[in-house]
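Bug report (template v2)

What were you trying to do?
Predict the complex of my protein with S-adenosylmethionine.

What happened?
Run completed; filing so the output is reviewed.

Input:
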Amino acid sequence: MQYHEPVFVAEVMKRLRPQPGAIFCDGTIGSAGHGSLIVSALGGRGTFIGLDRDPAMLERARTRLEGMQEANGVRLILEAAKYEELPAILKREGLTGVNGILLDLGINSLHVAHDAAERGFSFSHDGPLDGRFNPNEPGTQSVESLVNNAAEADIARWLFEYADERFARAIARRIVRERAVQPIRTTRQLAEIVALCYPPKLRHGSLHPATRTFQTFRIVANDELGCVERGIRACIESLLPGGTCVVLSYHSGEDRITKRLFDEYGSPRPDPSNLYSATTTKGLEYRVEKRGALKPSDAEIASNPRARSARLRAITRLEVAA
Ligand SMILES: C[S@@+](CC[C@H](N)C(=O)[O-])C[C@H]1O[C@@H](n2cnc3c(N)ncnc32)[C@H](O)[C@@H]1O
């Protein structure tokens, strides 16, 4: 079976410190690269919750984890769900919280692999313009629907805000012009339209001209930034005392939200009824890693180019009485 190569493995494990018998969650399990290491560290006891919004990805994780000898004796709860659903899953399973959570955001390299062209995530392989983690999720809109129906001004704004695309207006204008002639239905069609908006000398750089456009439509189609906002809050609030939440992001918008939420939870919020108390309004306290986001080393980038844009942040719930 093909696997996604996990990023920041040693750094993630150092911060999560999974102990035998503990309760851990990988909220974006993917093909269980990090997840399988966490399960191994549980020493044949404890509970592991693995979630993925993409049911096909969850099944890959299930095959891998259920085939591991080290998983024998570990209570595995594997579910096709968004990590913002963690509190409801914990409640249903009779658990009060978790000792650690990993969120490794964004797409899996298997989403853009050549045998996943029908998922519509990749501009390198022709397929239908879908780009959704779970097309059966109520309320989601495919990239095809966005590309063919969104207002020109919205497309330009998304490209600018989510991807710093310098040719945002030209791309939006061209999409609207082309879709008036015939609907844009495939990844190749969209990639070709976008490439034509780039000056010829910039069309063959190290980054394909369509990279930012595909990333933007995927983010919008899946409401990824909304999920990060709601999901990180849900995960922080699911930590047991002493538990750590590690977030790996690959997009500046995701990292900005992570930083803002960590700062919000990590800064002492005085209880208004006691001016001298450093207790937060929820009666909990969190500590954020002081040095900010961890960036990958040159060695990590050399061995796994996907690590280039990765940023790691961690927040820990302190062992204080509520
Ligand atoms: C970077 S991959 C994780 C890779 C994983 N750490 C590994 O080692 O294989 C991110 C995964 O998160 C999933 N995902 C994206 N948004 C999600 C969400 N809101 N909730 C749960 N899973 C999500 C994607 O389907 C993808 O499989």
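What did the reviewer find?
Residues 4, 6, 27-28, 30-34, 51-54, 57, 82-83, 104, 106-108, 133, 227, 231 surround S-adenosylmethionine (CB under 6 Å). The CA atoms of residues 133 and 302 lie 28 Å apart.
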